[in-house]
């Protein structure tokens, strides 16, 4: 069963990767794309969407890239998915009576329950799971956003 779009999966992976690796310097789109095994251009629109949603912050200049816009414990998985879903517009369901009166309300209720559960999961929770699984650069896993 497909619960998340490819774009949703990539958005979560990108935010978690940046949370793990962005200290002390921001992560370039090129480095992020290499770790996610994607062409750099594939991520540009997604990263800009996350910047506009105040999940990531773009840093300009020769040592620029992307970093978290807030503490990772203040970013939920649901907020990441909502940002990319609203930017994507989503597919429109057919307007037949069966869909509108039966299928759409069931799917909408299930989607709400799914997002409500993801609202309890923070990027920090996911980063800690990555540390448990020894994924990423362990020396930077404890890094967090600081002002």
Describe the protein's topology.
Elements: H1 6-21, H2 29-35, H3 40-52, E1 56-59, E2 65-68, H4 77-88, H5 97-118, H6 123-132
Antiparallel strand pairs: 1-2
Helix pairs in contact: 1-3, 1-4, 1-6, 2-3
Task: Summarize this structure as a short list of keywords or feature phrases.
single chain; 147 residues; mainly alpha; disordered C terminus
Q: Name the poorly predicted regions.
A: 138-147
Number of discrete helical segments: 6
Main beta sheet strand tally, sense and closure: 2 strands, antiparallel
How do the helices and strands follow one another from N- to C-terminus?
A: HHHEEHHH
Descriptive report:
The protein is mainly α. Helices cover 54% and strands 5% of the residues. It has helices spanning 6-21, 29-35, 40-52, 77-88, 97-118, 123-132, and strands spanning 56-59, 65-68. It has a two-stranded antiparallel ribbon. A hairpin with a 5-residue loop joins strand 1 (56-59) and strand 2. The radius of gyration is 17 Å and the shape is globular. The termini are far apart. The relative contact order is 0.18. Residues 138-147 have low confidence and may be disordered.
Quick gist of this model?
The chain has 147 residues and is mainly α.
